[in-house]
Amino acid sequence: MAIPNGVKVGVLAAALVAAGFLFWKNSKSTDANSFLLNEAQQFFTCSQGHDFVLTAAESRANAQQNSGIILCPQCSSASSEAHPCPACKKLMPLVGHGNIPDVCPFCKAKVNPQAPAPK
Predict the structure, then answer these.
(1) Rounded to whole angstroms, how far apart are CA atoms 89 and 83?
(2) pLDDT over 70 for what percent of the chain?
């Protein structure tokens, strides 16, 4: 027994309405109580050499207050994102367009296993 075309169209319309509703509900601005904003950590190094860690919510608030620039909480100088070295745990400045360096500039450990050996 074949399913009538009217039923198929009705099910399709209901699925599209449900998908549209879920997209609309999840595309609203991020809630201030969002788990990711309060738990995710971002690492920064300022131009004066201070290392600091902010949650995503703190870095977002810092950037909104300072025209999109994350300022160091100790000296108020501009900062850039960093990544902790898995070997020595120091914060390495990112290279290029936000890439993690192949080798840690402090302990010379290979951060990227596919990187060439340090010289």
Answers:
(1) 9
(2) 82
